Metal-dependent hydrolase of the TIM-barrel fold protein
Amino acid sequence: MELGEFIETMPLLDHHCHFLIKGDVEKREERLAQVSTEADNSYPLSDTKNRLAWWAFRAEAQYFARDKTNFLQSMDAKEYAAYNQLIFKHYNFKMLLVDTGFVPADAIIDLNEMKKITGLAVKKIYRIETHAQEWMEKEETFTQWWRQLSQQVAHAVEDGFVGFKSIAAYRFGLRLRKVGTAEAKKAFHGWKNSGVKRLSDPALISYIVWNLAPYIIAQNKPLQFHVGYGDADTDLFEGNPLLLRSFLQNWCPKGLKVVLLHCYPYHREAGYLASVFPNLFFDTSLIDPLGPSAVNRVLDEALELAPYSRYLFASDASTYPEMYGVAASRFKAALLHHFAHLSEVPLEQKKVWIRKICYQTAAELYIN
Amino acid sequence: MELGEFIETMPLLDHHCHFLIKGDVEKREERLAQVSTEADNSYPLSDTKNRLAWWAFRAEAQYFARDKTNFLQSMDAKEYAAYNQLIFKHYNFKMLLVDTGFVPADAIIDLNEMKKITGLAVKKIYRIETHAQEWMEKEETFTQWWRQLSQQVAHAVEDGFVGFKSIAAYRFGLRLRKVGTAEAKKAFHGWKNSGVKRLSDPALISYIVWNLAPYIIAQNKPLQFHVGYGDADTDLFEGNPLLLRSFLQNWCPKGLKVVLLHCYPYHREAGYLASVFPNLFFDTSLIDPLGPSAVNRVLDEALELAPYSRYLFASDASTYPEMYGVAASRFKAALLHHFAHLSEVPLEQKKVWIRKICYQTAAELYIN
Amino acid sequence: MELGEFIETMPLLDHHCHFLIKGDVEKREERLAQVSTEADNSYPLSDTKNRLAWWAFRAEAQYFARDKTNFLQSMDAKEYAAYNQLIFKHYNFKMLLVDTGFVPADAIIDLNEMKKITGLAVKKIYRIETHAQEWMEKEETFTQWWRQLSQQVAHAVEDGFVGFKSIAAYRFGLRLRKVGTAEAKKAFHGWKNSGVKRLSDPALISYIVWNLAPYIIAQNKPLQFHVGYGDADTDLFEGNPLLLRSFLQNWCPKGLKVVLLHCYPYHREAGYLASVFPNLFFDTSLIDPLGPSAVNRVLDEALELAPYSRYLFASDASTYPEMYGVAASRFKAALLHHFAHLSEVPLEQKKVWIRKICYQTAAELYIN
């Protein structure tokens, strides 16, 4: 089989994405436009529609719509399910791993319903900070809080989770450090007494992630980090994956599997890290659907140093199937562009690597 | 009209440039070479002439010269005006916004004269730090100084300015923060007593820019920041636009229109910021004339995430018309290269965006 | 002569590389794979073999092997010398400058033997931190230690060295600053008393490099810095060449010739620095052999602003001749790709620049 056809028919395991929303939501066009950007909803929609991503989402909707002239209207449940299945099947999606920590308005939060609508296997990822916040609200003391959180993490795989995620980069950045219990305890009580649910203390987040690592290793599932590109709430300067160095130096050799998500514009840095640290994986999700003109270039740059066995497909999509579709379409095109230009490598080896990138490595990491 | 012709004939509003110098200056070749680099004049001219920019400037001069074999000689006023008009007309420049804070030797500082020579509309930008320095020399107390500076800013549009510019990045970097009056007052007196005219205190610059923002909003004109690439005097590490985050978070939602200038090599970061913050615009000026082989790639990278309605043409040129010409030539070529490759978008939409980039967005920002 | 042939036949002066190892070492395939990555030997070999670099090294070995089916076996001394000479001659290598501070297992440390095996001129570079460590072990007091170290540096050229190298980036980063003798003395004794040979104190390294600069200027030889990409031991965030700013501002105008090595992923930053600081040179070694799919793009980006007279070829290769060969092959291809696309410049000028890049500038710097 030639390379183009091989890639087109390759199954996809989307190891990082979010909830779909319902098909009958009003203002589907507005919702689709809003999810074509990382800007929040106070950002002018007119500017959002002057982004290439909007035009790609729009074209994707039109391509798969039954009615090509009126293709941004709401759908009833049955039509929406068919529409979803059409898109996911077209790109050969097989499984979605859903970070359940982000819940868009009108989300379909029942994963069984998501399975039915998409026709795919769906599994869930445990977002650490969200759960830490929930336990803070329920528990009075540091000791009780930490027991609950750490025990929940220790049994997460039993509870159906296939991986873990930290959004430290959304709370203070990636300069995670080893923090002692006394400092963590003090930070916990400061937080608890602040009346603010949102966890943002650098010392406490460091403590949590650092000390949950053994429980994650014990279950042999990966720990994802939000890295780089995201909404205006992230401090992108502090989201540079190079800042994770002491965490990676400490935990990767001990067997912690770490997956850096998104990474743009630090995808070269992420590729470098994957090339020198054991157990380190990464993707360039989010730029695939939201920066369509970037995808060829970003994938090429990401793979300058990284082993092909350390790079994964993901969409980071949510809300509507068009976003997953645009991600898959641009990613597969970029794979073809990349591998078609490699003269050093025989076709069979290219196929081995493409399979790893599209689903095999993710399957081994999360579904083992 | 086809895309190539459309771009070629598109008018340009150069929203960030500097003074021309006189045509009869001796050593025109040396002056042209010196402005083909950001290095200062102690940098070896032989290395400057081993840069591609020099060869582009040289070719530009030859192309437009009457005498193709002797094309780097001085000109009398009449010949120089004709030469300028030939170049600016060739690229369809319509208006120049001049940052009057940088004055090259032998500059034509009378903007009316600049209008006559170029045949273009010319308007001026208020450089904050330069004026802050002038008022420091004239006023004894912090209160008087601040009253003079802030009142001058408050009436700048009446006085013919169409925008504002901060060169904080040339003085300490972009980590602007909210500073209280007591700290600013202390910093002012430290500066005043130092005997050094140059304003470089981070606290005082932060105070100035932060507290002038309301006056700028009130006049509905943009505030430009020098970002990234510049001469050896800028600390490029501290010129990363991501460091402006707290300033942008505070002021953009309140209506301050911010324009990030140059940005290279942080143009991806700037594009990201424009994609998530309201009222944030940027350009990739300076690399256009000074890095001719970079322009296609830099424009593509800048536009990976940014709305097409947030990106502007500018040259950052000065001294001789060749620099404006090389900037326009490479920028227009890069626009064609970028838009010719977009498959998602119909031709008419591309034209809408190209018009915005070349003059419409700048016209709305500065000339409204 | 056409550009392609001109580049192919251009001599190479490899101004930064390391020792070869013996040809009869067992497990030649494993050793070749290990040197195709910057990861240390605890990194999984299976991942290393999923990198493009391995496939390029492998193809290089096969291309030059006598036995095309069994091309990764050990060789006896005679066959190994012939094999080396075949490869170095193929790419027209003329001279190697060896950083003797890194010694792989089974290295051929006798430079005369290296000359014989390669058929090339071989000269040596003085690695500052390594020698500082040796003198620390021998001397009791700061004063004695500094006298020995500084005198050795002062006479290094007499002793056959043609340049100097600092690996500050491997020890704490590139934020070199001016440090007083009292602080340095204290740091020296802290180090001496620690029982750890490895020099990593930022103040002491700063002191050493800053205060050896005059001795290096006096001998008119360059000082190399490790910058950017390297093994997991370097903190890549702190290896950004922009952080060298105060050192460069102080020493380059005084005549210190500085060469930034590797630079990836900060090669644009390095190119910018070379464009504004006198006496500043750089290369993009290491990415040439270890990131074959990157080389065209990295070379293009490195040369966006830099003078062609400030950029040098180097391989950073070690261990086996294939690594030097892959570096040369990819670098020459990238040169052709870059210069073939420059429309502003006549062929003769391109040849002048290519000659400078391949050997002339390095010859003037090191062999003057």
